[in-house]
Amino acid sequence: MNRTPLLLLGGGGHCAAVIDVIEATDAYEIVGIIESPESQTECVLGYPVIGTDDDLPYWVQKVPACLITVGQLKSSAVRRRLFQQVLDLGGHLPSVISPFAKVAASAIIGDGTVVMHHALVNPLAEIGANSIINSKALVEHDVRIGAHCHIATGALLNGGVTVGDDCLIGSGSMVVQSTRIIGKTIVGAGSVVVKDIVESGVYIGQPAARHLKMEAED
């Protein structure tokens, strides 16, 4: 089997987790990792850091298939910027799905999205570009997730939920069926969303409520 050369952008902890997924697929040959100029990282799980963001024009010409391996907590800004930069340089971003995940044949997975180990994406779900569906997350039937989102470990999105662009749905959180969440929203770990979120911000609790103090701290 000929494996596709792949360039990884970002060398932190999320990169290590994604490498494990990539290796499990046996579909890609990781050429190396691009890091931020200030990073001291030299390699991740044996794969070398071969350049910084400043070297992207050179490396994308050599290795056009790229994957964003920067994590996403408070903001999607870095992932969004790198995604657009790869496209502007003529590269492309494959979706990568763990062989230990279950993705329905009718589900749609956007470019550059990673579906991690033991995640479940059910029929007629749609996930936008450059998103993370993390380990053991559940994306139920007819869910719509925008671009540049992170559905964190063990999060549960029930049937018909809509999540806008640039959102984080935190670990172990739950969103009840048919609920809508506006873009640029953070739902804290362990929270339960029981009604539509129509104003961007940070929401925590059971039921989830807007947390102005946490927004001010950010």
UniProtKB/TrEMBL annotation:
Q: Which UniProt keywords apply?
A: Transferase
Site feature Increases basicity of active site His: at which residues? Answer: 142
Q: Name one Pfam family in it.
A: PglD_N
**Domain PglD N-terminal: residue ranges:** 6-85
Q: Which InterPro entries match?
A: AcTrfase_PglD-like, Hexapep, PglD_N, Trans_hexapeptide_repeat, Trimer_LpxA-like_sf
Q: Which GO terms describe its molecular function?
A: transferase activity
Annotated residues that bind substrate are located at 71
Q: Which residues of this UniProt protein bind acetyl-CoA?
A: 150
Position of the signal peptide: none
Which sites are catalytic? 141
Gene3D superfamilies per the UniProt record, alphabetical: 3.40.50.20, Hexapeptide repeat proteins (2.160.10.10)
The Swiss-Prot or TrEMBL record describes its family as follows:
Belongs to the transferase hexapeptide repeat family.
| Name of this protein | Acetyltransferase
User: What is the species of this protein?
Assistant: Hydrogenovibrio thermophilus
